[in-house]
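Q: C-alpha cells for this one, please.
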Amino acid sequence: MKYKDFYQTLGIERDATLDDIKKAYRKLAHKYHPDVSSDAKGEEKFKEVAQAYATLKNPEKRKEYDALGQRSDGDNFSPPPEWQTHYGATGSDFDNVDLSDLFNAFQSSGQFNTHHQRQHFPENGQDYSVTASIPLETIFSGGKADVSIALPELDEKGLPHRLRQTLRVTIPIGAKEGQRLRLVGKGGAGVNGGKAGDLYVIISILPHPIYSVDGLDLFFDLFLAPWEAVLGTSIVITTLSGTFNLSIKPGTSSGVKLRLSKQGLHGKSGAIGHLYAVVQLVVPKKSSEEEHKLYAQLAAISHGSPRDNVHKESL
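A: Here is the predicted structure, written as C-alpha cells:
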C-alpha cells in the first residue's frame, strides 16, 4: 500500500484543529478548482485536497488515519493487523493500493470505523459575511431590503459550489456605514444535525445623486440664480422627510450653509442629525440681448468687486 500524507496535502500540522483543517481546505479548494485554476495539474490537486479533507474533518476517520503512523508521502507499507481484521483482508490484498483510494472505498461503503458502522457527528455550519448596498432612503426611514448572496457550500462529494439566494432583510432606522446585522441560522448549513451558521450583513450606503452623508448630517447643493442670491427669495424644497419652505436672505453668498434642524439621520440614544443646504450660485451660460444690456448697466453702476475684500484680507 502507498502512504498518502493528508496533512502534507493540506499544508497543516498533525495537531491541527478542525478549524485549521477547514481553513486550509477552503483556501486550496479555491486555488485548484478547475473553474479558476490555471495549473495544468489543478484538477488532480483539487481531488487530492478533497480526499484529504474528507478524511481529516471527521474525528473517527482521522483517528483511523492517525493510527497508521507518520510516514513519508508515497512510501510503501503494510497496514496494521487490526485493519486486516476489521476489513477482512490479507496483506497481499493491500499491495499496490493507494491509501486515498482505499479510504474512499471504505467511506463509500460505510465501513470506515472500528465497528464497521459509519458514525455521524454533528458539525455546525460556517458563519459568513456579505456586504449589502442599501439606498439612503431606506437608511433614513428604515424598512426592508433584498440582499442577494452566494454562500459557499460543499456538495455530497465534498466539492465546493455556490448556493445563491435572496434574503429579505430588515434595515433599522439610522443604520450606519459598516454596521453589521446578524441573521441567525442564515449562514452555512450544519452537517449531521449541527446548527446552521449565522450570516452577517454589512451595511454599505449607496451613493445618492443629491445627498452626501457626514455622520448623522446630510448635505445637498442648493442652486440659486444670481438675482435670487442678491434680492433674496423663498423656495420650496423636497427632502427625505418632507417638503419645506426655505427663506433665502438678500445678499446670500455661494458656499453658505443653510441648516434645517433635525432633518438628518437618526442615531443612538435619540440623536438626530441636521440637513444642510449648501448654496451654489449658477451663472446662465447664455443670455438674451436685453439681459446682456441689463448686466452691462449693472456693471456700470456697481462699485468694487468681491476680489477687493480678498485683497485687503491678504494684506
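A few notes: Residues 84-98, 105-119 have pLDDT under 50 and may be disordered. The radius of gyration is 35 Å.
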